[in-house]
């Protein structure tokens, strides 16, 4: 999947979206026109993004990005798309931290104008480590960088997480508390169980995912830390960099109140996911970028909080990613791009590494921490 054409993500017509966007923009800024509308090649697998410019003498900004809730006719990745929640999260982070997030301009909760709710934000200039082809492959700008440049990028990225977790008052982020009972980690995992049940409704179950949930219970932390605002999709593929310095942190749809390690585990494992893809294809990958031991040590220096139970949290990250990958695979089946195999676990691109984590062999089987 990393090297194949991207699966279908929408049934919407870009030209029709452009016309309707210009009509809507005129209601917010009379006489304004949306020009240069494009869909980025790296458009996400869940929500859609449109890039455009505003032509108007009093435009608040010229370069914009529009985040549009997923096309309900396109077998959505997530069951709910709360654009107001994402908009509110971006405003909260901007108001309490120096973490660079895009300036949000407008929120439209009425699905009428574009067929789904959306918000508009300022577009940041820079470059993003790509998913396709993965940034860990030879030929990517990050692969071509020097060791010192990659270290700078990795260190700055962990610095972002440290400041986000330390600077946003948890009391102000109560609207991000996962539903249910128990502490925020228990609620977070319970929500993932509900998401998995939604993904497999009427479809083959994944024994591997269910074994991973069982293993989580065996590894459950004895002490769950105080909750912080967790970005949720904390990976370098969701950051715009100017050179090797972060200038915009994107994609907040999975934000929640959760222990710090939820973000740290996701950051560490999502890089390992792309690194493992490169190694599986016979390439070297980027083994020294975002190494688990270095991430933990840097975060501890910056915050005074030593990450704990990281075997649990990296497994949890791999499990969460597996559920998303299973949903994406079933969407390919829905659109006739793939068939369900005899073993549904093989639909999960990283099933080997997830199985190794369940067995407690993943980190020990590799020479890098």
UniProtKB/TrEMBL annotation:
<feature type="domain" description="Aminoglycoside phosphotransferase">
    <location>
        <begin position="82"/>
        <end position="274"/>
    </location>
</feature>
<dbReference type="InterPro" id="IPR011009">
    <property type="entry name" value="Kinase-like_dom_sf"/>
</dbReference>
<dbReference type="InterPro" id="IPR051678">
    <property type="entry name" value="AGP_Transferase"/>
</dbReference>
<protein>
    <submittedName>
        <fullName>Phosphotransferase</fullName>
    </submittedName>
</protein>
<dbReference type="Pfam" id="PF01636">
    <property type="entry name" value="APH"/>
</dbReference>
<dbReference type="InterPro" id="IPR041726">
    <property type="entry name" value="ACAD10_11_N"/>
</dbReference>
<dbReference type="InterPro" id="IPR002575">
    <property type="entry name" value="Aminoglycoside_PTrfase"/>
</dbReference>
